[in-house]
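Hi everyone,

Forwarding the result from last night's run.
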Amino acid sequence: MEGFTVLPARNGTEALALAAASQMDLALLDLNMPVLNGWDTFEQLSREHPLLPVIIVTARPNQLFPALGAGVGALLEKPVDIPFLVQTMNRLLSEPREVRLARLAGRSVEFAYAPSGTTGAGALDKLGPHSAVKPGAGTSTKLGAGGPSSGPAS
């Protein structure tokens, strides 16, 4: 990707070693990694590097609420829309540390979600207190571990 230095890891154990040995700004994790899966890798990364934003990329269904509960920065289902990925990366890289810590604590913060089968760069949907996550080019919503929250997303 242009403008980013990528440090690839073949599995979760290598990803953790890279995080320990280098100054990473953001992590992209696939859930289906060998040796140490994505959720276990995320758990250890967030414990050791709580300010490191993490984007989960997966082909697994039904990962939205586990992602919200875990405090990930974004969940993108495969196939990934690259412009939305870059937009999400830039947003996470520029957010204040207080927002990252609030997300890990389960408080309501903006969350990027791109369901499977979405393409293009459509408008971002803001969800209200009784809305469901709707497919779109990417949904950016203010959600905490308990589900949608009212009020505008930041």
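The CA atoms of residues 84 and 154 lie 17 Å apart.

Cheers,
N.
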